[in-house]
Amino acid sequence: MAKKEYAFYPGCSSQRGASASNYLKSVDSMCKTLDIKLTEIPDWNCCSASIGYAEGGELPRHVLNARNFALAEQNLPGQEIVATCAACWLGARETKERLDASSQLMADTNEALKEAGLEYKGESDIRHMVEVLIEDFGYDELKKPVVKSLEGIKFAGYVGCQTNRPFGIVGESFENPMYLDKLVEMVGGEALTGYDQKVTCCGGALAFSEPDKAQAQIKDIVESAYDHGAEMIVTPCPLCQANVEIYQGAINKKYGKKFNIPVMYYSQLMTVAYGGSAKDAGLDGQVIRATRLEEIAAKR
Amino acid sequence: MSNLSSQAAAQYNNNFLKEVEAMVEEGNWVKMCMQCGVCSGSCPTNFQAGWDHPPQEIFMMIRAGKREEVLNSQSMWMCTSCYNCIVRCPRKLPITHIMHGLANYAHRLGLAPKNQPTRHFAKLFWNNCIQTGRVNELKLSLGLYFKDGFKQGIINGLAMKDVALGLLKAKRLNPFELFKAHGCKDQKGIHAMLKKAHEIEERRKAIKTA
Fold first, then answer.
1. Starting from the edge strand earliest in sequence, which strands make up the sheet with A126-128, in order?
2. For a 10 Å CB count at each end of chain A, is N or C smaller?
């Protein structure tokens, strides 16, 4: 039996051929090493992210999330729900808090869920993968399987918004959370703790609808990483990862910059440190390749 | 003013604060604002001249009954959902949610600005994700590029071609999603439960305006 088991909510961006498929790949590898068994919630649906509110409204949004909870309770009883995506986690947890706080909203939600033959009892807890790592394992335990050090690589830990606010990781501050830096140090990398854009917003969904505004924010995030001497940026959020990585070319054109910095997930660093191959760590999924990590992964 | 909008205003004797409290998600918090402005100083888009009225100004305008100005405003649509205002507000107002709630209310009443890009994208996103139960990133992007017609769509698409090619090469964008997309098995159930949820929400809002 696996050391820990969870009901897994991977989210839309992690699907095969989607924008964060490399995140999922590395999470799978990382969990294999740590003996974590993630069982996908059968037939899970979209959380409607942080942009679904305008058309979706209140109750439909909660009903979408509650469907996943009900499916988890029914198929994976007693298991906590774990999300890897910041927006999935936030959306789901928000719904759970609102439903817990209002019997009316809970009753309305269940009235709607009945149409899909489901019922939500309010049992499951919603957690982020980072919470699982830090709270259920802890840095000492996570360090044990490290076989390769990422020594000499300087990382700017970009936490972003939604894994940090409004819920965040217990014991961390909203203004300067340290967990990502600690994870970097745990795998032997150098954490640039003075990186001042750590919790700046990348623009989120406005990267699509208001690209100029979002790219102005992304420019600051990348520029500060360079200013602090970073070779790579590391993040826990799929939208942060995509926004900060894929628009660097557009920002270069617009602002006359020469940005070309890899943007990684914590799970990719851990997979490489645990001895995984470049493929295991999803390094082939980078738009801006992380050559130094690929070299370490290739070393026997 | 649209019919729906004038009805709603009349139900509350043109007391806009009362209307917001009853009809807007988390709107009952608005009166708690003490005008300190920390939300505005914490907002990433406020620094880019994005807001015609920053959050604390919106709250005061609600109390002052400036209904049209608030609901016609671009302001709420500038929210990136970064939640900085929420965690810093000394009175713990759920400002992000109030902004979303106001945007949703303005959208529903038909008072939100026409061609507001985030309004358009939000609608596109919701319809995209509920169609199969999961987001189709390819159709979402294409829908966004082609919002101003075919010709502009090609121009927008070409402007983004480097981003798309990078993602294609990294296998993070799948052109076949256009034909055979990811999706939930029980799409019928999802559509039925969402229809019901909309009905219930309409019913609840109707009781409040009755």
1. A36-40, A4-9, A81-83, A126-128
2. C
Rounded Cα–Cα distance for residues A203 and A201 (Å):
5
The separation between the first and the last C-alpha atoms of chain B, rounded to the nearest angstrom, is 20
Q: How confident is the model at residue B155 (pLDDT cuts 50, 70, 90)?
A: confident
Is B171–A17 a contact, with Cβ atoms under 8 angstroms apart? yes
User: What are the structural domain ranges in chain A?
Assistant: 4-130, 147-298
Give contacts of A 95-134 with B, CB under 8 A: 108-109, 111-118
Q: Looking at domain A147-298, which CATH architecture does it have?
A: 3-Layer(aba) Sandwich (3.40)
Give the closest residue to A14 by CA, choosing from A265, A208, A278: A265
Q: Indicate whether B179 pLDDT > 90.
A: no
For residue B42, which of B95, B98, B101 has the smallest C-alpha distance? B95
pLDDT tens digits for B104-145?
999 999 999 999 999 999 999 999 999 999 999 999 988 888
Contact A217, A247 (CB under 8 A): no
Class of the domain covering A4-130: mainly alpha
Mutate to test the interface with A, among B116, B120, B121, B129 (most CBs of A within 10 A): B129
Q: What are A6's strand-pairing partners?
A: A38
Spell A36-53 as b/e; 16+ CB within 10 A means b. bebeebebbbbbbbbbbb
Contact A155, A192 (CB under 8 A): yes
Give the right CATH number for B3-112 from 1.10.1060.10, 3.20.20.70, 3.40.30.10, 3.30.2350.10. 1.10.1060.10
